[in-house]
Amino acid sequence: MPASNVNYRPETRLVHAGTLRSQFGETSEALFLTQGYVYDSAAQAERRFKNEEPGYQYSRFSNPTVAMFEARMAAFEGAEAARATATGMAAVTVALMGQLKAGDHIVAAKALFGSCRYVVEDFLPRYGIASTLVDGTDLEQWRKAVRPNTKTFFLESPTNPTLEIIDIAAVAEIAHAAGATLVVDNVFATPLFQSPFTLGADCVVYSATKHIDGQGRCLGGVVLASEKFIQDNVHNLIRQTGPSMSPFNAWVLLKGLETLSVRVHRQTDTAATVSVALVDHPKITRMIYPGRPDHPQAAIAQKQMRGGSTLVSFEIKGGKAAAFRFQDALKLVRISNNLGDAKSLITHPATTTHQRIGPAARAELGITDGLVRLSCGLEHPDDVCEDLLAALDAV
Ligand SMILES: *Cc1c(COP(=O)(O)O)cnc(C)c1O
After folding, report:
1. In ligand 1, which atom is closest to the CA atom of 160?
2. What would the pLDDT profile of 205-251 be if each residue is shown by its tens digit?
3. What's this model's pTM, rounded to 2 decimal places?
4. In this structure, are residues 185 and 113 in contact, taking their beta carbons and an 8 Å threshold?
5. For a substitution probing ligand 1, which of 92, 118, 209 has the most ligand atoms within 8 Å of its CB?
6. Regarding the domain delimited by 261-392, which CATH topology (the fold level of the hierarchy) does it fall under?
């Protein structure tokens, strides 16, 4: 029996699930860098196009390497179906646009990754889809935002960059009572530490660019859901409009999945170590880490997550000038807006990822001028802590 069909534990599925071996019996997954496929006969081509015979037709919507990535992600997440996309934003856009049409309404938590917020707040309304942004941690706001034409709810948890935790099961219940679906962007939690389907989500999306690649190479995304959800909302949109993942990226990301568990556990340990090393520092005014008992939603984190986070956010006393001096004094940790990389990366959200939303929206989200977000890499945790402490001395 192929390994992917056996109910192994998640770490084992990350290494084996979905593998399709060619006639050469290769150990490592093959890279099928092909646009199209040839048929043995005209009749076979006809059968393929009529879906009467399984097989590949065109890599905009079917490719063996991409299929392996999709099957591995589906097996790992416990989803019936998955579709890979070129980027995480393509996954989010497809998951939302695929369900919505003019006249519909979407409710989303306002603490969203910058481009996700753009899609909900600016892009969907251009097509006649109304949107309401709520404080995701306030369940009453979700309830009050529901309208007769509300079709879907959208959230991420933990949120970027303040690492707020939203009660996914409670929001799913409100969505379903309203006849709406719930889409969860699970990037920050990673599939290792949070399983939104078991909490009631109808669709889960990832930017594979982050922890799934984990080494800063390829962009990618994936939409996971029931077979019906994918067929009704996602498959044809990707097939006909083409935000597809390249086989090369799928191959890199498949290899990334093999090491995901080892990397994320190590990076999470480092983030926890950093939060402890810095929390009482006189130049730190706020420490946010979902694994800590002093986190505002620690009880919900405990209930719905199996681990902390590879990210830790903290506020440096002295606002923007101090945050800039701190970042510029770092020698090992690099300044970058990316996350989930093997290299530790630091971001100043107020002037980069969250600059577009303006000071009022930032204040509402708790994104102060002193706040920085650290994505912990795979370096030795002591080297990361020493670099951060030395840079704080320089502030
Ligand atoms: C990065 C990210 C995205 C977008 O992914 P891309 O691969 O950069 O398009 C969406 N949501 C979250 C939470 C992210 O961190």
Report:
1. 13
2. 999 999 999 999 999 999 999 999 999 999 999 999 999 999 999 99
3. 0.96
4. yes
5. 209
6. Aspartate Aminotransferase, domain 1 (3.90.1150)
What are 70-105's pLDDT values in tens digits?
999 999 999 999 999 999 999 999 999 999 999 999
What CA–CA distance (Å, rounded) separates 65 from 250?
6
**CATH (one of 3.30.2270.10, 3.40.190.10, 3.90.1150.10, 3.40.640.10) for 2-256:** 3.40.640.10
Ligand 1 atom showing the smallest separation from residue 220 Cα? 7
Is the pLDDT at 5 greater than 70, yes or no? no
Q: Could you tell me where the DSSP H helices lie in 55-167?
A: 64-77, 88-97, 114-118, 139-145
In the DSSP assignment, the letter for residue 36 is B
Q: With contact defined as beta carbons under 8 Å apart, do 289 and 270 qualify?
A: no
| CB 377 near ligand 1, within 6 Å | no
Looking at residue 291, its pLDDT comes to 85
Residue 253 CA to residue 72 CA, distance in Å, equals 10
Burial label for 337, CB within 10 Å (0-12, 13-18, 19+), is middle
How far apart CA 274 and CA 224 sit, in angstroms, is: 33
Note the pLDDT of residue 1: 36
Nearest atom in ligand 1 to 221's CA: 7
d(CA 385, CA 92): 34
Task: For residue range 334-362, list pLDDT tens digits in order.
Answer: 999 999 999 999 999 999 999 989 999 99
Q: Are 331 and 394 in contact (CB under 8 A)?
A: no
Domain spans in the chain, listed from the N-terminal domain onward? 2-256, 261-392
pLDDT band at 7 (very low <50, low <70, confident <90, very high): confident
- Tell me, what amino acid is at 204? V
Q: Letter for the amino acid at 327?
A: Q
CB of residue 341 inside a 6 A radius of ligand 1: no
